C-alpha cells in the first residue's frame, strides 16, 4: 500500500475524481486535494489568455496551508497540472518522493491557448509524465520531460459497467458530448436529423450552437447526461456516435472505450487508433464522412441482429484491452514503485 497525495478535481462526476477512487480501490491510502476550489472563477476563466503564472503566489500559499503539517507521502499524483508553476513544484519536490503528472488533454497542442503554458515551462520537475496521444510523447520530451509514458484513455469499471440485455427493439442514435464552436458537430447532427434518423443529442453548451434556433435541431436536444445518466443513455441507445476534436488532435477519445464498456455500439470516425482498438464491422463501426455515417446508421437500424452482434463483441473486446481505470493506474504505479 502506498500513501499518495492526489491533486485534482474533486467533482464527483469528473474523471479526475474517478481516478482518485480507483487508487483507493487498489488498496492505497490517498489524500485528495482540489486546488481548483481555491481559485476564484475569474482566475480560471482568464488563464487561457494569460496562463497561471500570475497566480503562483496565491497557489503556493494554499500548498503551505494544506501540506506543511502532514506526514510525508510515498508518491505525489498531479492530475492535469496546469496550475502548478516553478515555486509550487520545487516545494513539492522538497518532500523527496516521485511526482507523477497525468494529463488527459493535449497541452502541447494549440486548442487551449495559454492554459498549459505554466505546465510546459516546468515539466522537467515531474519524474513521470503520463500522456494519451502518441504525438505528445516527443513533444513533452522537447519541453524537457524526464520520462514519458503513453497510456490509453480509460473507462471506469464501476461507472461504465452494464447489465443490459438484448437491444433489438431500439432505433435511437445518441450523441453525448459538448458543443464546440468551429468543429461543425451541430451541422453534422442536423444533417442526420434531416436524413430521417431518430437522433438524441446530450451534453453541455448546445444552446450556443447556431443550429439550436432550428426547431428540427433543438427538439432533439435532451440536456446534460452526467454520472449514471451518461451510462443509462448509452445503454438505452441502438447506436452511439463518437466524434473527435481536430483542434485537440484526437484520434480516439474516452468515449471510444466508455461507450462499449457501458454496453453501447460505437459508431465513430475512422482512424488508425480506432481500427487498432476494435475490428471494423465486427466490434464497432466507423465512417469518414457524414454520408457514410448516415448510410451505416440506417443499415444497422434495419439489421438489429447484426447490430446486436457488433455491440456484444465490442463490449467483450473493451474488457480484454486492459483500458479500465484500474488497469491504467496499476501500469502507472508499477513504473514508479
Detailed description of the structure:
This protein has helices at 15-25, 41-50, 56-67, 86-93, 117-121, 134-142, 185-194, 215-218, 228-235, 254-261, 272-277, 290-302, 304-320, 325-336, and strands at residues 3-7, 29-33, 75-79, 99-102, 128-131, 148-150, 173-176, 199-202, 221-223, 239-242, 266-269, 285-287. With 337 residues, the chain is of the alpha/beta class. The strands form two sheets. The chain has a six-stranded parallel sheet with strand order 2-1-3-4-5-6, sandwiched between helices. A six-stranded parallel sheet has the order 9-8-7-10-11-12, sandwiched between helices. The chain contains 14 helices and twelve strands. It has two domains: 3-152 and 323-336, Rossmann fold, CATH 3.40.50; 173-320, Rossmann fold (3-Layer(aba) Sandwich), CATH 3.40.50. It is globular. Helix 3 (56-67) packs parallel to helix 4 (86-93) and helix 10 (254-261) crosses helix 13 (304-320). The N and C termini lie close together (11 Å). Strand 8 (199-202), helix 8 and strand 9 (221-223) form a beta-alpha-beta unit.
